[in-house]
Amino acid sequence: MEKKIRVTVNKSAFDIIESDVQSFKITKNYLINYIFDILKEEKIETFHQDEEKKEIIQFNLNKKNKNIYYDILFENNIQIEAEFIRKMIYRYTYQSKSSRELFLYRDIVDRLKYSIKNRRVIKINFDDDRKTSILPFYIGTSKLELGNYIFCYDLLEDRYKNYKLSNFKSIFITQEKREWQNKEFINNVIKNFDPFLSQGKKIKAILSEEGKKILSTIALNRPETISCNGNIYEFKCSEQQAKRYFAYFFNEIEILEPLSLREWFIEKYRSALRIYENTKIK
Fold first, then answer.
1. pLDDT tens per residue, range 141-197
2. Residues 125, 149 contacting (CB under 8 angstroms)
3. SS3 sequence of 157-206
4. Are 89 and 32 in contact (CB under 8 A)?
5. Which of 70, 107, 111, 181 is 20 to 30 A removed from 260 (C-alpha atoms)?
6. pTM of the model
7. Using an 8 Å Cβ cutoff, are 148 and 95 in contact?
């Protein structure tokens, strides 16, 4: 017989659970069971509940947790089941998203740390079934603490890369050991971690007045400004970062350099124009 549990939480915690289920491609049942499994014996202080709208989270204990559930309640002298579960949910949701990600991927993170310490090559299976082999150097967090990245050298692509932790499906630690090459570059990236590996890269662009307003407003993935001379800006920015960030600007920006990035934007706008020109609204 299934053990169903219903617990009332504040709306902010409920929304985080709902968001993480989507972001990390898991079910709510899996997430709450995982939280229970990891935190069931941790001494958690009571969290203050804000006076806000409440929502109900309902889930079924999986077989593993069900077998020990009542023993856990007894050993910890738990009188109110819902409060016990609620404290674990708040313990999870009151962390930053990057910390929640590290919590959910703790098994992979532990093995990554081992590989980094011991200079071991690892094989990665991504959630889209891609595979590669890397020499990992560092687990870094984005500035807004929205995600974690593995800074590494991809042996198949023969270049330095950052991979999102949330895209990892599984990893395998090989017996192959490799020493770090270009240690100065690696240490500089670690010291000034940037998910887009923009060190030593820059772009030049012209911003309109509206473009300047957008720049000051959108913080996510915003590159560092190197210089500003009137409407001409130089940014510390890789092409990958520029494609993500400046796509919001439309005609409020003109990319000047590098030429490859300028051509990329030209082709994107041309493609969009062709779609509008060739589509007739009935």
1. 987 778 999 999 999 999 999 999 999 999 999 999 999 999 999 999 999 898 889
2. no
3. CCEEEEEEHHHEEEEEEEEEECCCCCHHHHHHHHHCCCCCCCCCCEEEEE
4. yes
5. 181
6. 0.82
7. no
